[in-house]
Amino acid sequence: MKRVTGLLAVIFTLIIALVGCGTSNSANGSSQSDKKVTVTMGFWGAAEDLKIYTKAANEISKEYPNITLKVKQYPSSDQFWNNLPGEIAAGVAPDFIKISNEGAYEYINKGLFTPLDDKLLASVKVDMKSFNPNGVKIWNVDGKQYGLPFNQMPAMFFINTDMWKKAGLGDYPKTWDEVTAAAKKLKTNDVYGICLNIQPLHITNVIKSYGGNWGYGKTINSPENIHGLQKFLDMYKDGLAVTPKSLGYGWDGEVFANGKAAMTTGGNWYKGYLKDANPNLKYAVVPIPKGTVNASTMISDGYVVLKDTKHKKEALQAAYYLSNENVQKAFMKLGVNPSIPSLSAQYYKENPEFKEIEKVQKYGTDFEYPKETKKFSDELVKQLEDTILGGTKSSAKKILDSIQKEF
Fold first, then answer.
1. CA neighbor of 36 nearest in space, from 71, 58, 72, 64
2. Residues 102, 187: one domain?
3. Is the domain of 289 the same as that of 349?
4. Contact (CB, 8 A) for 115 and 304
């Protein structure tokens, strides 16, 4: 997966030491509404993203004359999270940021983000009903809203159609058993049936399809999770699956782009990558296959207000402005699925290769990682790599029982 969360444990140690050091002008950290305030938004992304945000920043004063919006771009999520603690300490951190929900729970639990309570939302006249309910739910933790959903992108399953046809296969797979059967026919001396990256997003999609979830750390070794993870392990045991690391690649998209696997789990970010990496590659996109249930992760970028900003109200005003139709339409052209329901429907017309994924909007859910997300992710990946690449021969039950004891 070409999305870096970079959840470094040392960051949280520093963040905890720093949270609460800021000061605010009122209970909501808001200044007087008639006073001109400069608000900074931080994000990581491409040059095209920056163009859209810069244009919006130049136009925001038409709706909010009291706000001057500055946009701060970080080259990567690693640099974003590595720099943030020092910026908090120096009093120069952004007032609000755009981040992915994958891994956000740990930051919420550490008290880094401002809960968007009814009073704060009402002060800015935020209409939460204007967003897709599923996106709103993803950013609601323990009954508190922490983010305005900007987009939502269900996980996807990619198939190399040329390889599929060459193998004489018919309908695309709807279940993992059908994936396994197809992978046996697709595997050759040079090509694996499927790329399954040993990374939490991909693992989570498999366990969810068997009715499982991490339960924020409470249900790590549930029977459903064990069933799903064993299916993951069995595809490696049978020689059908490959991980990018074993082929010398950095992520699953590279494996797929280079024709080393006929199928892979991924997301809509594949579109832009494949356009450059292998423009001649023909592929089909279907929902994550069913194990025992239809289930999938839902990746959602959201705007969150930092806890120590002195301008909570103005930061939320700016964030809400950046959720408007014009901004979301601009991002839709870049392949991003908007959180506004009417635009989301239009998105699938403009991105027809993802049409089959539209149904997943109704049932995609959050990752539900434990509070100590980095610790969990590191241990899950380590144990799976030891088993798949290192030959420890652990079962899914043994792995998840062991991890559950840590949480």
1. 64
2. no
3. no
4. no
pTM equals 0.80
CATH code: domain of residue 233: 3.40.190.10
Domain that holds residue 81: 9-152+299-358
Q: Does 2 reside within a domain?
A: no
- One-letter amino acid at 118 equals D
Q: Exposed, middle or buried, 191 (CB in 10 Å: 0-12/13-18/19+)? A: middle
- The helix, strand and coil proportions of the chain, stated in percent and rounded to the nearest 5, come to 45, 15, 40
Token readout for 353 is 């290769």
Which amino acid, 114?
T
349-402 confidence digits (pLDDT tens): 888 999 999 999 889 999 999 999 889 999 999 999 999 999 888 999 999 999
Q: Which residues contact 264 (CB under 8 A, 6 or more apart)?
A: 157, 158, 194, 195, 196, 197, 252, 253, 255, 256
Closest CA to 200 of 30, 330, 379: 379
Q: Which two tokens stand for residue 265?
A: 């789990």
CA distance 221 to 268: 30
Structure tokens at 398: 């043994």
Long-range contacts from 85-92, C-beta under 8 angstroms, 24+ separation: 85/11, 85/14, 85/15, 85/18, 86/14, 88/15, 88/18, 88/19, 88/21, 88/22, 88/306, 88/308, 89/14, 89/18, 89/21, 91/22
Tens of pLDDT, residue by residue over 244-278, are 999 999 999 999 999 999 999 999 889 888 988 99
Q: Are strands 67-74 and 37-44 parallel, antiparallel or unpaired?
A: parallel
